[in-house]
Amino acid sequence: MRRKLAALAVAVFSLFGLTVGTAAAAGGDFAPPGCFGERYGVLFGQGVSVSCFPGEGYGYRVIAHCTNGSAFWYVVGDFVPYGFGPATAECTGALLVPARVFGYQVDEI
């Protein structure tokens, strides 16, 4: 009986650890060092704006991870050369299901 309870306790703790670990990793903001992001509101949604200091390559773009309940998708922002303003990506939804930025990442090109 004690073995069964111990196995159940280990299973519950491991399940809790897996759900907390994946939720923390999935909703993160992945910007390289030297980049600063800011979220802002748009009509029925949310956007993200990222500015980066000059680095390797020619420029950068931001990729927003969007959600509105059970739907998930990506919005890729335009390419921005270093020194020419922020890169932006906006998640837009509808009146009853507004979208939000779940996380974002920056790709250097």
UniProtKB/TrEMBL annotation:
Record protein name field: Secreted protein
Keywords associated with the record: Signal
Signal peptide as annotated in the record: 1-25
